[in-house]
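sorry for the late reply, my laptop died twice this morning and i had to redo everyting from scratch. anyway the thing you sent over, i finally got around to it. pasting the sequence first so we're on the same page, its 433 residues, then the predicted structure underneath. double check i copied it right bc i was rushing
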Amino acid sequence: MGTGKLRLSQCMIVKNEERNIEKALSWGKEIMWEQIVVDTGSTDRTVEIAERMGAKVFHFAWIDDFAAAKNFAIEQASGNWIAFLDADEYMEPEDMCKVPAVIKKAEKLGLEGLYTLWLQVGDDQSVAMVARQCRIFRNTKKIRYDKPIHECLYYEGKNMECHMLDATGLSIYHTGYISELSEAKSRRNIGILLKELRKNPQDPDLLGYLGDAYRGVEEEKEKALQYYREALPHIFARARTTERDVQTIALLMTILMKQDLEQELMEVYRKASAQFTGFYDLDYLAGRFYLEKQDYQKAEHHFEKALAGAEQYGTKAYNPMMSSDIPEVWKALAFCYYKNGKIESCVSSCVGLLRIDKGQVTALELLIRCFKEEDPQAVVGFLCKLYNLNDITDRILMLRGAISAGAEGEGVLQAIRGYCTEEELRVLDKRKE
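ok and here's the structure:
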């Protein structure tokens, strides 16, 4: 292992991770100088598997302090850089191979760590949330974790921001809070957070994290709203907005949307919009709320603002909700344009989406609906700027779009049928029976 002068130590703290530990020690093995596993009390085969895979295994008595356990792991590392990922996190091979070169770039610039993207992945592999985190950093006594839960890295006790290289071209994927183990993790976190909250009862970070934890416990979900509400005045009193503040507000708005508390939702929206820069999740969530209520004028307004914010700020501003959902926002905005009678804008949006991804059947259906008064052959001619009728895959996509458009797409459907083989038509008609 090892890459030139770079000695990268992979570190992790674990407990009962026998389902994940093999993958955790495999995804980056070829670039690692060593692999450090600190076990905090496993009762399954975690330690056995880690030792069999060649990791250096250490034991740490659990004291309800993630920072202490992680700092213990760092102290066991002999490499000059550290990659600290959890057992349920990984990098894809193409990104993993780039890590050594990105670290060398950071070294040349005199920087101490890398900011990568962090993506929360669901069981269906969809991305539920996107953030920016530092998981790869120089092994120096100046860098240590602090806070017993939701621990953060600090450089000589201060924020790491000015010591970081933006490496958000690299991504780390996290799967841990989607599995059936999520409620157990939430209950564990609640105990630690309540203990810390007794010491700092007005800490908006702790209040926000408690809201997160209670969201993961089915019979106590109502407490999430309580703690997010409690955090709000302390967030607005802060001089500097943190990523945790943004997440608390976004999750609070999500609950208010589900409970149809429009007045409170928009009050939070207005206050946060006035105070925070680059927070386009606010308009994304407001747009979703009004789309659900079929208020297409307001939904259009907010979706347009959200997309303008995404274009202006991109990943420079933390927006965990919309970052994984931008194509869906374009589709929602196109639908609003259609409902509001702005056909030209709807067509433009749908064409833009289909140029990026011809498989966006919802956008294709909407596009066909926009041309319901036009000659079907002319519509097919227009669609051929996006699709190739000589390609069976494209023909099937066009057929699907026309079928989805129902009566408004019947003429286009019949026109496309003229380009299909007899066998394709038999299959198509059989499916329609």
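The CA atoms of residues 83 and 411 lie 58 Å apart.
thats about all i looked at so far, will dig more tmrw
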